[in-house]
């Protein structure tokens, strides 16, 4: 687990910095996302697999979970299902570069399972930040 803190603007309505959990088995992608989010003012915790992500979610408070969909140990769809079982109000952003079925099929399933936004990799900085802001602004 790696934690990246920032001191910028990622504060919620109450002025408290918002916590984001990023789950991706691609360590470079995970680090890149974390750096983008931290530079925007969010507290970011990284998990490099689904099991670690679920453990972290159960021990800390997160305002948002961003998860990759295709991972070796536990796929993102399973993660979304388990998280939603524990907290039906959880805010989730799913991301995927695709696979055998292509990104759109995986992302469609993620949305059906409860992801609030879905992003195709590679993800542009502005698209990531816009999605995060939109999901965090949901009631």
What would you note in describing this structure?
This protein has one domain: Rossmann fold (3-Layer(aba) Sandwich), CATH 3.40.50.2300. 41% of the residues lie in helices and 19% in strands. Strand 4, helix 3 and strand 5 form a beta-alpha-beta unit. The longest helix has 13 residues. It is globular, with a radius of gyration of 14 Å. The protein starts with a strand and ends with a helix.
> Count the strands?
6
The order of strands across the largest sheet is 1-3-2-4-5-6
Order of helices and strands: EEHEHEHEHEH
For the largest beta-sheet, the strand count, sense and barrel status come to: 6 strands, mixed
State which percent range the strand residues make up: 15-25%
Structural class: alpha/beta
| CATH architecture title | 3-Layer(aba) Sandwich
Report the total helices.
5
- What share of the residues lie within helices? 40-55%
Counting structural domains, the number is: 1
Determine and state the CATH class: Alpha Beta
Shape: globular
Mean pLDDT over the full residue set: 89
CATH topology title: Rossmann fold
What's the structural blueprint in terms of helices and strands?
Layout: E1 2-4, E2 19-23, H1 27-39, E3 43-47, H2 50-59, E4 64-68, H3 76-86, E5 92-96, H4 103-113, E6 117-120, H5 125-136
Parallel strand pairs: 2-3, 2-4, 4-5, 5-6
Antiparallel strand pairs: 1-3
Helix pairs in contact: 2-3, 3-4
